[in-house]
Structure formats: C-alpha cells, structure tokens
Amino acid sequence: METRETRIAVIGIVVEDPSSVEALNDILHTYRDYIIGRMGIPYRQKQISIISIAVDAPQDVISALSGRVGKLPGVSSKTAYAAHG
Length: 85
Known about the structure:
- The chain has two helices and four strands, in the order E-H-E-E-H-E.
- By secondary structure, the protein is α+β, with helices and mostly antiparallel strands.
C-alpha cells in the first residue's frame, strides 16, 4: 500500500455571501477525512464569517480544497503551510 506524504496547513476562509455557506459546508464535508479541526467566527458587525480549517493532507488535496472554496461566490481563501510535518 502506497503512503502519500502529507502536509499540515491552515486554510483561512472569509465568507461575505451567506448564500454560499451551504455549498461551502458541502465541500468541507467532502474533505472531512483530512480536516483536523475547524473554527468559525461570525462577525455580525461586518456581516461576514471567518473560518479557519486545520488540515493534514497531501499537497494536491490541500490545493484542491482551497481552490474549490475560493471559487465560491463571495468566498475567499488563503492557505498557510507548516514548515515541517
């Protein structure tokens, strides 16, 4: 059985369009096996949500997840990688 090298990363997500939340949750559910933890903060004063997702996954999986999230209307994402791990 092949073991793929994984990386630790945090994906920061800002949701400005509430109509994209259901699609975002569907994407995150698809990648649930790679998600270590998730923190969401509703910032009501600015009418946005800020979400951070910690993942342990192969590089291509992290890129695919971040890319799919970033294509949603009114949603932006950036990924930060751990130096090791």
